[in-house]
Design a protein that fits this description.
9 strands; 33% helix; seven-stranded parallel beta sheet; 7 helices; alpha/beta; two-stranded parallel sheet
Length: 206
């Protein structure tokens, strides 16, 4: 089983869209280990609605939390203790796309972070970056943390409006592979996902 963990430099940078494109392009399975904000929606349902292939399977969250806030805070509101030992990989022979919550250093408990899940799963990492004021700093810090912990980074996906100067600095400093760019789209639907899935560089990383 190939394990690909989709993380980002922060919240709402496009992890779910990128995860959906990867699921579609690789005909992979999908899993969101920890989901906050279930009183609004779930990323699993979003991905299900956006893919076109019939091969992909979806696995239930290890923790489903109602409030759309950091997992450690959402769990505390429900008197739930998130335990890493209770989060186990689904059994599949297919490639598994794992979508994180928020960024790399989002706390799951007072002692564990999203980073610890990536390390536990020994997964390859796709880092999603959205350009905004401060995104260079957030991007390079995220990359430094991943490298410090000797995690395998498949590459970077830029999502949203392009900022060539920012992207150049991030790519030149990090020496990471650019997997793709996803411009801001007015409509996110199956056709949009298919358009990007057929041209994604991750297909060439086997």
């Amino acid at each position: 089983m190939r394990k690909i963990f989709v993380t980002g430099i922060g919240t709402d940078v496009g992890k779910t869209v990128v995860s959906t494109i990867l699921v579609e392009s690789l005909k992979a399975d999908y899993w969101k280990p920890i989901q906050s904000g279930t009183n609004i929606s779930t990323d699993t349902n979003t991905v299900k609605e956006l893919i076109s292939n019939s091969k992909s399977k979806f696995y239930p969250e290890a923790y489903s939390l109602k409030e759309p806030i950091s997992p450690h805070a959402a769990a505390a509101l429900e008197n739930i203790e998130i335990k890493l030992n209770n989060i186990s990989l689904p059994k599949t022979d297919n490639t598994l796309i794992i979508e994180g919550a928020g960024g790399i250093m989002v706390p799951l408990t007072d002692n564990f972070f999203m980073l610890d899940l990536i390390k536990k799963f020994d997964a390859e990492v796709v880092l999603v970056i959205q350009n905004y004021l401060g995104s260079i700093n957030h991007s390079l810090l995220s990359i430094e943390v991943l490298k410090y912990h000797q995690l395998k980074i498949l590459g970077i996906v830029f999502n949203g409006d392009s900022q060539p100067s920012s992207e150049r600095i991030i790519l030149e400093y990090s020496k990471l592979k650019l997997l793709g760019r996803i411009p801001k789209e007015s409509i996110i639907d199956k056709e949009m996902i298919l358009k990007y899935a057929t041209n994604f560089e991750l297909l060439n990383t086997y």
